[in-house]
Every structure is written in C-alpha cells, then in structure tokens.
From TrEMBL:
Keywords: Membrane, Transmembrane, Transmembrane helix
Domain of life: Bacteria
Transmembrane segments: 20-41, 47-65, 85-102, 108-125
Protein's recorded name: Uncharacterized protein (DUF486 family)
Taxonomic lineage of the native organism: Bacteria, Pseudomonadati, Pseudomonadota, Alphaproteobacteria, Caulobacterales
Matching Pfam families: DMT_6
C-alpha cells in the first residue's frame, strides 16, 4: 500500500530498495535502541554506570542502522515521513518488547493511544487534503 501510494505520488514505479531498506533498517535499529533504553530494567541491581556504558554500546549499533536508513530513505521519503515511520516502528517494537521481554501487559488504553498515533501517521503519508 505504501509503495503504491508513493508510486502514484512520484508518477512511475520506483526501485523497491530506497522504499523498503529504510523501513527494515529502522526496524532493526529500534530493536537495538529499545534494548539499550529499556533492557536494563530487568537488571535493577546492576550499578547505573555499568548500565549506561552497556546501553551506550548497544546504541552505537543502533546508529549504524538508523543514520544510513534515513540517508537512503530521504531519496524517496520526506524527513517528516521518515520521522513518522521511526515513531510508529518504535511503538510497535516497544509493544512487543514490553510484553515478551519485560512481561508487561498491553491495555486497551495503550491500544487506543497507539491507534491515534497510527491515525496521525496516515495523514503524514496521505498527502495534501
């Protein structure tokens, strides 16, 4: 759906790589960043300075994915579209992470909030009204 919409926007079929690669790279980078920011919550007894250094080390790899993803993606997406993608991907990755890794439950309130954000993303990609 997204690629078809972009093809209509740009007037011709475009190679899939600049469309798909940034999405996959942002997905992978968000897995790293989610572990960097929240993975330590299962290890509350570890000294904070160790947690910060380990998190920083994990985030290093996140940057190696996020920065190229944005550079590649900017060939076909606007900066606002890339940022919107990033936020939606972040929420999806975090929702899975919080349930599977942290053992937390998603509530109806979470789902409503995430849905409202997804609605905002729809308007970013829809184009002018």
């Amino acid at each position: 759906m997204l690629v078809e919409s972009l093809e209509r926007k740009h007037g011709s079929p475009m190679p899939t790589t600049p469309y798909l690669a940034p999405i996959l790279m942002l997905l992978a980078s968000n897995v790293f960043m989610t572990f960097a920011w929240y993975g330590h919550l299962k290890f509350g007894a570890k000294p904070l300075w160790i947690v910060v250094l380990v998190s920083w080390g994990i985030a290093f790899f996140e940057y190696w994915l996020a920065v190229p993803a944005n550079r590649i993606g900017h060939q076909v997406y606007s900066a606002a579209e890339l940022k919107t993608m990033q936020e939606v991907i972040t929420l999806l990755v975090f929702a899975v992470f919080s349930v599977l890794y942290l053992g937390e439950k998603l509530t109806v309130n979470h789902l409503i909030g995430f849905s409202l954000i997804a609605g905002g993303a729809f308007f970013i990609f829809k184009g002018p009204l």
